[in-house]
Design a protein that fits this description.
Layout (H helix, E strand, L loop, with lengths): L5 E5 L9 H15 L2 E5 L5 H5 L7 E2 L16 H6 L4 E4 L8 H14 L2 E6 L2 H8 L5 E4 L11 H4 L1 H14 L4 E5 L5 H9 L4 E4 L1 H4 L4 H9 L3
Parallel strand pairs: 1-2, 1-8, 3-4, 4-5, 5-6, 6-7, 7-8
Helix pairs in contact: 1-10, 5-7, 8-10
Length: about 220
């Protein structure tokens, strides 16, 4: 994704994110204007049309470790890649997996050439996730998700501690942080704590003016 700060925008299943192409185009416009890397993460059925409408990276909200075969209802890495995704979230707090399943999902992503962002909720899980070798881990205390209280301010130690833990185990794995991120100052604080960017959702997707929210996010970095 390059060395510029990274903003990952998860559309979740918010009704505001149902016009996924429009939301992704806001991300693309602000990314081009600011030079900040922005990734759009729409719902899985929207991947194909979103990826075909924008040039910024598009990620899936989830994959399973399952491959081709008798796995009804599973989401395979190969399928989301063929739909145009170049990466995926794994183990979001709203789609939690067992460690063994995280491991197999990361392995499937690697095999298919997808970038993986493993979401974690504490330093111990962050350390475990880093051993699987994803490109990114994203530390997000669940109690702060959607709260409007940024983790970079509410619990800076969990962010800086995650960065230290990951660098000791897997120096090539980069760290993002999320939960409560909604303003440019939150992103700046996250970068000061050693992360390479942020993962957020409602701060953009549910904003009255999503593009203005995005512009604010990149305004202090």
């Amino acid at each position: 994704m390059g060395k510029n700060p990274l903003i990952v925008v998860n559309f979740k299943t918010y009704t505001e994110g149902l016009n996924a192409v429009k939301m992704a185009k806001y991300c693309e416009e602000v990314s081009i204007d600011s030079g900040v890397n922005i990734i759009a993460v729409p719902q899985i059925p929207d991947l194909y049309r979103v990826a075909g409408s924008v040039k910024i990276p598009v990620f899936s909200q989830h994959i399973d470790g399952a491959g081709a075969g008798s796995f009804t209802g599973h989401i395979t890495a190969e399928c989301v890649k063929s739909a145009g995704a170049v990466g995926t979230l794994i183990n979001h707090s709203e789609r939690r997996l067992l460690l063994a399943d995280i491991d197999s999902a990361v392995a499937s992503a690697k095999k298919s050439g997808l970038t993986s962002v493993v979401c974690t909720n504490n330093i111990a899980v962050t350390k475990a996730a880093a051993t699987f070798g994803p490109e990114y881990v994203a530390i997000e205390p669940p109690e702060l998700i959607g709260s409007g209280i940024p983790v970079s301010k509410a619990d800076p130690d969990i962010v800086s501690g995650s960065v230290r833990a990951v660098k000791m185990i897997a120096p090539d794995v980069e760290v993002l942080c999320g939960a409560g991120i909604s303003k440019g100052e939150d992103v700046a604080a996250a970068l000061e704590l050693g992360t390479v960017g942020v993962l957020l959702a409602s701060g953009v997707v549910k904003a009255k003016d999503p593009k203005a929210a995005l512009l604010d996010l990149v305004g202090k970095i």
